[in-house]
Amino acid sequence: MRKLLLILISLFITTGISAQGINKLKREKPDLEEIKRTTLDKSSPYYYPRLMQEYLRNDTLMKIDKYRYLYLGYMFQEDYNPYRSSQRSIQYNVVDKSRKLTRQECDSVIVYAEKALADNPFNLGEMVMLINALREKGKTNLANIWQYKLNYLLMAIVSTGTGEDEENAWYVIEPQHEYVLLNMMDFTVADHIFYDPCYEYITVLDPKGNKRGGYYFNIGRLLEEYYRKHPEEL
């Protein structure tokens, strides 16, 4: 547990969140029924349309409680599709980190990423690409706003458990979020194993290619919604 905590502290310090903030982050298995009820309740401070409006305003006033309801509550919205298609398959290690992007490359990344995020506000892979491109272009303030969003969306995932076993598995709303989180922790995915009915165990490699165990993710609600909309796949 301490090793994992140190990894997460390192991750969030590099993206603007303090070690104290991570230490204080409450880890709690989410009550999905309560989240569904609360985000659909117009009298609730976590009523989903209001949460999304606040998120899209690009301010930095939302904190972890709202991000947790925003992230997990999306699974109960009508347009939720955990396997929505994209025009390209994103590889998060494609960009050569040893060189800077050209201005033309930055412009292309920004245009596509903004379109992708307008379609899916939780496309974390595109968010990473957008932040990097904005920083290369010197658009620091806008990059910081997107970094804030990315930080808190990742914290919303981390707040759901420790990832160390099935009981404490991390909850994600899209499969790609598993890979983004692990990649941001400086891991490469080595393999994944599905555990019936709702768990995925992903083994990882460190930057030197050494095996570093793995982490558990709960994908139960994700699969439930997929099969509801695609019963032919059952």
Characterization of the model:
By secondary structure, the protein is of the alpha+beta class. It is built from ten helices and four strands; from the N terminus they run H-H-H-H-H-H-H-H-E-H-E-E-E-H. A four-stranded mixed β-sheet has the order 1-4-3-2, covered by helices on one side. Helix 6 (103-119) packs antiparallel against helix 7 (124-136) and helix 7 (124-136) packs antiparallel against helix 8 (140-158). It is globular and about 45 Å long.
Briefly say what this structure is.
This protein is an alpha+beta fold and 234 residues long. Helices cover 49% and strands 11% of the residues. β2 and β3 form a beta hairpin.
How are the SSEs ordered, and which strands pair?
Layout: H1 2-14, H2 19-23, H3 32-39, H4 48-56, H5 64-73, H6 103-119, H7 124-136, H8 140-158, E1 170-171, H9 175-184, E2 188-195, E3 199-205, E4 211-218, H10 220-229
Parallel strand pairs: 1-4
Antiparallel strand pairs: 2-3, 3-4
Helix pairs in contact: 3-5, 4-5, 5-8, 6-7, 7-8
